[in-house]
Amino acid sequence: MRAEPASTTRIHPGALLPRPGSQSALREQNQQRIIRALVNGGPQTQAELARQTGLSTATVSNIVKVMAGSGIVTTVPTTSSGRRALSVILNDNGSVAAGIDIGRRHVRVVLAGLDYRILREEAAALPLGHSAAEGLRVAADLLDTVLSQAGISRSAVLGAGIGIPGPIDRRTGTVVQGAILPEWVGINIRETFGARLGMPVYIENDANLGALAQITWGQHSRVENLMFMKVGSGIGAGLILNGALFYGNVGITGELGHTTISEHGLVCRCGNRGCLETVASTSTMIELLNRGSGQPVDTQGIVELALGGDTAALRVIDDAGLAIGRAVAHVANLINPEVVVMGGPLTGLGDILLNPIRRGLLRHSVPIVGETTSVHMSALGDRAEALGGAAVVLSQPARAALPLVPS
Amino acid sequence: MRAEPASTTRIHPGALLPRPGSQSALREQNQQRIIRALVNGGPQTQAELARQTGLSTATVSNIVKVMAGSGIVTTVPTTSSGRRALSVILNDNGSVAAGIDIGRRHVRVVLAGLDYRILREEAAALPLGHSAAEGLRVAADLLDTVLSQAGISRSAVLGAGIGIPGPIDRRTGTVVQGAILPEWVGINIRETFGARLGMPVYIENDANLGALAQITWGQHSRVENLMFMKVGSGIGAGLILNGALFYGNVGITGELGHTTISEHGLVCRCGNRGCLETVASTSTMIELLNRGSGQPVDTQGIVELALGGDTAALRVIDDAGLAIGRAVAHVANLINPEVVVMGGPLTGLGDILLNPIRRGLLRHSVPIVGETTSVHMSALGDRAEALGGAAVVLSQPARAALPLVPS
Asked: Is the ipTM of this complex over 0.85?
């Protein structure tokens, strides 16, 4: 890897996107239009881009200049109707996006091309309770390995989208209390990773990345309003609203694991009582099953027992699913999504988990809302978060090279 | 009023806005840019508009032509740097927007100018359990009265934004089951009102209009993510997400009144049990207070008793507020709004109601989310919904005149 750390101006504030309506948001929208036009229509002149996007030729020319400067596009002199023109070509000359998913026990790296082809994908184990420094080291090493296996130089990497299983305060770029990885709380992951990896980094909550992956690589590319819900030792969700990731005020959204299900229930790690996580996380399921049997069970064991017809496992999953469905119903009543996609280590359960979730949804939602919300398992399995990381980079290729304007 | 009913093409499908990303959404965005530029910068040439918006002169010219055709702008030949040009002027020649709020017992009409000045405002009583036809007749008569008092001709009205206290299915434009006004269920209010009023109509859920009023006329004009929650005989909310009204999949959002608070509680009008409405609506408060005292209480009585220090009223409000706060906490955990504004007939209670709501919010939310969500009473009182109706019309002045393109 490169010896020098990236300068701070190279580290992109993925956690501080411009607000809609601001000048920088307007410029960002215009860039996205141009990139979409190039992805859909192939190489074309600036005049053609202006016609297709409705932007002025001056605007197109300015944006193309910036994108060419950062290697996103190449411009080639040409003629159009006998006049001199500039043909704009989206570079697919080896530029790649990296997606990195860091979990409690694993790290996964994917590389994707500008054409959204997955070039390489690897996972490595992490010890439970690993420090942030250790997680970072393993992730950076795995990225090196994957790049070298694929024969791709580090300079070809546009950036890395990194998923963290915890809420991220977008005002500061730090993981806040309530993370599944308490060792990471308070660390500015964006700066830490940016300095270590020597490339622009985009930090995201892992469930947000899972949501983004569903509309990018999943079967829901045409869905405008979708929730991706991850049920594991923690429970969280990512929201796609009006076709884009939704961040709310400070960036902490989808904290469904802390929906109150039982007012005087068990104490949750968040400090409240009876949260969904205390009745439906895999940790709770494991604890319930371990009390009832002589043989200790892990997450994979829950799935195997249930698929084998074990009565206790089926009951524990059914109770958890009903509670999850109740939380999903509250979401549906509030924001009326078209699709809810379930992810995490229990996706192999299929209808065994989906059926009680659907019952809970119908039981606790306004009828028309429950009936128009469909619930599916993610087809991306445990790849969703890392894929979403690459999608974050691909969805804003020009932004990293732009000067930052306060919004 | 005009004798002839409006043709159906004149009736704008306020309930069927284009999806973001579609061609019509793109055109709509471009129009909004031009209108904003005219509102902010005053009359200017098409070339200046192109520079200011980043759009091509051809795009600006096309949109201006359509807007001129519908009377939204006037174009005047001028010269700019010695060349012939067209100056574009936003019309404020008496054009007005009407906002109509229809409740269980009242109808309210406001008229606003293109400069957002409120020109006139009137309310009239409606009998409880009125039919849709009767509500419509009273609303249309009141609009006639207000127009004639203000000396404004019907042809100067750009359209009417109409608030209905019930969920509206945007696929069909009808009020669906669960409405506070069961007499209205299944009626296509858009067509009915459009034909009766003879102008473009925009139908909205009343809480959505309340939310829109907060960012248009309220003290929250710079807030990007806001929930307006109306607590009355029903409980519902409108959402402003990323600066715009949010509709979800079929248009039914903010159904907070049906958050499950008590799993085996009272049966709710929606068919579920223990919904927030069964513990915190004004109907429930009235029922509780009437059981405990010899003197029957109405909604205004709740406020008067509490302000006078009545122990039972204070307790009933405190319990209701805590339950409302729990529902608000679930919202905050999910979408992390910056501000929650409370509206409806209990706003006069001030901190008596706000304090238990804030306690409930902090008790049931992830700490950083609860601490960064502020809860206020609406300063617009019972005017919010009608004002929001006028805001709907003003926020899309050019759209009514555009041909409809399937999105």
From this structure: no
Region B223-249: mean pLDDT is 95
Q: pLDDT value at position A397?
A: 44
Between the CA of residue A308 and those of A312, A313, B223, what are the distances in Å? 11, 9, 52
Give the Cα separation of B405 and B13 in Å (integer).
11
A80 and B CB contact within 8 Å: no
Q: Which of residues 227-246 of A touch B (CB under 8 A)?
A: 237, 239, 241-243, 246
| Chain A residues within 8 A of B253 when measuring between CB atoms | 334-336
pLDDT over 70 percentage in chain A: 87
CA-based nearest residue to A166, from A156, A176, A152, A158: A176
CB B376 within 8 A of CB B384: no
Give contacts of B56 with chain A, Cβ < 8 Å: 50-51, 54-57
Q: How many CA atoms lie within 13 A of B274 on its CB side?
A: 12
Predicted local confidence at residue A51, as pLDDT? 87
Q: What one-character DSSP code corresponds to residue B93?
A: S
pLDDT digits (tens, 9 = 90+) for A297-342: 999 999 999 999 999 999 999 999 999 999 999 999 999 999 999 9
Q: How far apart are CA B71 and CA B64, in angstroms?
A: 10
Structure tokens at B240: 């402003």
Structure tokens at A252: 């902490």
Q: What is each CA distance from B60 to A24, A52, B56, B403, in whole angstroms?
A: 21, 14, 6, 17
Cα angle value A64/A21/B61 (rounded, 5°)? 65
- By DSSP bridging, strand B374-377 and strand A339-343 are unpaired
Q: How many residues does chain A have?
A: 407
Instruction: Quote the CA–CA distance of A283 and A302 in Å, as a whole number.
Output: 10
Q: Which of residues 276-315 of A touch B (CB under 8 A)?
A: none
Q: How confident is the model at residue A199 (pLDDT cuts 50, 70, 90)?
A: confident
Give percent of chain B above pLDDT 70.
Answer: 87
Q: Which CATH number fits domain B8-93: 2.40.50.100, 3.40.50.720, 1.10.10.10, 1.20.1330.10?
A: 1.10.10.10
Higher pLDDT, A317 or B134: A317
Of the ranges A191-205, A283-297, B51-65, B273-287, the best mean pLDDT one: B273-287
CATH tag for B96-212+386-394 (out of 3.40.640.10, 3.10.20.70, 3.30.420.40, 3.60.15.10)? 3.30.420.40
pLDDT at residue number A66: 85
Single-letter code of the amino acid located at A266: L
Higher pLDDT, A16 or B134: B134
Determine contact: A359 vs chain B, CB below 8 A: no
- Structure-block tokens of residue A341: 């996609």
Mean local confidence (pLDDT), A154-175: 87
Tens digit of each residue's pLDDT (9 = 90 or more) over B304-344:
999 999 999 999 999 999 999 999 999 999 999 999 999 99
- Angstrom CA distances, B219 to A174, A244, A376, B361, B372, stand at 31, 28, 41, 22, 18
| Whether CATH 3.10.180.10 fits B224-379 | no
Distance CA B273, CA B275 (A): 6
Q: What CA–CA distance (Å, rounded) separates A387 from A218?
A: 10
One-letter amino acid identity for A8? T
